[in-house]
């Protein structure tokens, strides 16, 4: 692309704007281009405060007291192997930032795992990630489909044998709440599911509402996680 545009005097700037570790610098560069440096700085500060809130409340957790979590794509539930969230994924970052131990933390990307592996890890909580717009998202008006998906997971022949299944600690979240500037938004839901006593005064929906209305400039609506923590 650069080779085609350079002769015309058009400069090309490539920005990732997805990886949390590089997002702030990318946003600052974009803000300079559009003359919105002050707004970008204010957003970055707001985001940092939200990230710090969660980090501060889980920082004293000892390894033996941390919740073991297994993340899975909703589309994997009908198969014989399941795709999970391991290192290098934004949901893994969210699970660990929320104070949990991702049982797939020693793997990378989105590995396929088998039922025996899940039973051996025996997670305390299972988080189902979905980008299905009919289950969770901005246009979803009720939790009907999310409830059906959760019920199918709770009664799954394998998942029902885990501690998470036995205690019905299986939750569903929209994967659009992760990645780029958004991973901390999903982390609020994860943290409250894992440690409700530590986050009694925190309403993840309220944090998301502020993000939508203050920074995106659009009304907050939809269903983003189920059951609501």
From TrEMBL:
Query: Pfam families of this UniProt entry?
Result: Peripla_BP_2
InterPro entries per the record? ABC_Transporter_SBP (IPR050902), ABC_transptr_periplasmic_BD (IPR002491)
Give the domain of life: Bacteria
- Fe/B12 periplasmic-binding domain residues: 1-202
For this protein, the parts annotated as crossing the membrane are none
**Family according to the record:** Belongs to the bacterial solute-binding protein 8 family.
**Name of the protein in question:** ABC transporter substrate-binding protein
Organism per entry: Aceticella autotrophica
């Amino acid at each position: 692309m650069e080779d085609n545009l350079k002769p015309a005097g058009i400069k090309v700037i490539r920005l990732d704007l997805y990886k949390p570790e590089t997002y702030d610098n990318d946003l600052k560069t974009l803000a300079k281009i559009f003359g919105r440096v002050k707004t970008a700085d204010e957003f970055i500060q707001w985001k940092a405060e939200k990230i710090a809130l969660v980090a501060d409340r889980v920082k004293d957790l000892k390894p033996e007291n941390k919740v073991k979590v297994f993340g899975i794509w909703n589309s994997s539930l009908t198969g014989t192997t399941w795709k999970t969230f391991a290192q290098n994924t934004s949901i893994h970052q969210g699970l660990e930032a929320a104070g949990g131990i991702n049982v797939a933390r020693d793997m990378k990307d989105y590995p396929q795992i088998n039922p025996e592996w899940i039973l051996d890890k025996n997670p305390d909580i299972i988080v189902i990630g979905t980008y299905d717009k009919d289950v969770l998202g901005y246009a979803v008006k009720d939790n009907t489909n999310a409830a059906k998906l959760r019920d199918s997971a709770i009664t799954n022949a394998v998942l029902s044998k885990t501690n998470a299944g036995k205690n019905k600690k299986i939750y569903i979240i929209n994967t659009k709440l992760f990645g780029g500037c958004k991973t901390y938004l999903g982390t609020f839901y994860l943290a409250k599911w894992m440690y409700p006593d530590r986050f009694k005064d925190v309403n993840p929906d309220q944090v998301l509402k502020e993000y939508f209305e203050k920074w995106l400039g659009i009304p907050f609506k939809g269903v983003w996680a189920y059951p609501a923590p």
